[in-house]
Write a structure and sequence with these properties.
The protein is an alpha+beta fold. The protein folds into two domains: 115 residues, no CATH class; 211 residues, Phosphatidylinositol 3-kinase Catalytic Subunit, Chain A, Domain 5, CATH 1.10.1070. 44% of the residues lie in helices and 14% in strands. A five-stranded antiparallel sheet has the order 1-2-3-5-4, sandwiched between helices. Strands 6-9-10 form a three-stranded antiparallel sheet. A hairpin with a 3-residue loop joins strand 1 and strand 2. Helix 6 crosses helix 9 and helix 8 crosses helix 9. The chain is globular and about 65 Å long.
């Protein structure tokens, strides 16, 4: 993270998500995650967004846009593999070619020459969708261990509160690809259709930890939403609203009534994940009667941390982008 990526540093690259997310390994075993976003976003937008996430989750906010020289190093690496395997295939070995990961990366670098790339530290992550698939027996065997780990993480001291803080940072940024107060989702798990009120993308609900009984914590990883108009921090909230016909979802947190209603929806969705076979109106709960208040407390604390972080970043000589300043002012006013 602290030095530039060079072609000779790269020992291997594997695909975590085709066309977008890669795991890069160095010759000394060091690991980075690389992500490619659409060409309609830029490094400045990422920088302003990550400042809000850093306030509540330093690990998730530890992202850095790749320089042109670093992107060129990735291209040289895949070009070398293509060239070397082609030469061997022609002269020595029949049908030799680059591996699937190198091909995938080569295609992205060749076809999306102006895309934003950024790097982040590698972490062991568990996602709610995989845990729920296992819980519902998507692969033929029911495995409740992943869902139980999510439950334990939520019920742990400061567990569900940390999720509330991440939600606050997401809504400040305008990230609609995790929780969205205005839109839930519907998806099939193990032959059962689950409806959720506010959890937009279950795959973006991350739990950070390892398999050796370490404490699990919720992560704000993958916070940058390139398809959202509010990534344009230089535009006022009104201008974004007019151009993209979408509201800034952070306003939900600035009113006690709407914030509490949203917290209730979040908890209801979490209960659905933890007990997918229980009816929505069932009195049975996994998270307990204080869950809504705990989520709301986390949201408020997240708002406070974002305000503190941005005060420090911008008031010591930085230039406030119009969209950042307006959101900051609304969060700050809601806390008084």
């Amino acid at each position: 993270m602290a030095t530039d990526i060079k072609e000779m540093d790269i020992e291997d690259i594997s695909v975590l998500r085709p066309g977008t997310v890669y795991k890069a390994t160095g010759h000394a075993g060091e690991i980075l995650v690389l992500k490619c976003e659409a060409a309609n976003v830029n490094a400045d937008q990422l920088t302003h967004a990550k400042r809000a996430m850093q306030a509540v989750d330093a690990t998730a906010g530890a992202v850095k846009a790749l320089k042109n020289d670093e992107k060129a190093a990735l291209k040289k690496w895949v070009d070398f593999l293509a060239r070397a395997t082609s030469n061997f295939a022609d002269n020595k070995i029949h049908n030799l070619e680059s591996g699937p990961s190198a091909k995938d990366l080569h295609a992205v670098l060749t076809q999306q020459t102006h895309a934003l790339w950024y790097k982040m530290p590698f972490s062991q992550l568990t996602t709610a969708d995989k845990a729920l698939d296992a819980r519902m027996g998507a692969n033929g065997t029911v495995d409740k261990s992943g869902v139980k780990m999510f439950e334990d993480g939520l019920k742990a001291t400061d567990g569900i509160e940390q999720l509330g803080r991440i939600i606050a940072a997401d809504l400040f940024i305008g990230n609609q690809d995790r929780f969205n107060p205005a839109e839930g989702s519907k998806r099939q798990y193990g032959g059962k259709s689950l409806n959720v009120r506010a959890l937009k993308n279950i795959a973006n609900l991350f739990l950070l930890g390892s398999k050796n009984d370490q404490k699990m914590a919720f992560s704000g990883r993958d916070f940058f939403d390139p398809g959202n108009g509010y990534r344009n921090v230089d535009m006022s909230l009104a201008d974004v609203r007019d151009r993209y016909s979408e509201e800034w979802i952070g306003e939900i947190l600035c009113d006690k009534k709407t914030r509490k209603a949203f917290a209730k929806d979040v908890v209801a969705d979490l209960e659905t994940l933890l007990c997918p076979n229980t009816k929505r109106l069932s009195p049975r709960t996994k998270l307990g009667g204080k869950a809504v208040k705990r989520v709301e407390n986390g949201m408020v604390d997240g708002m406070r941390l974002v305000v503190q972080q941005l005060t420090s970043k911008y008031n010591r000589g930085g230039v406030w982008p119009a969209g950042v300043k307006e959101r900051y002012d609304q969060f700050k006013a809601a806390l008084t």
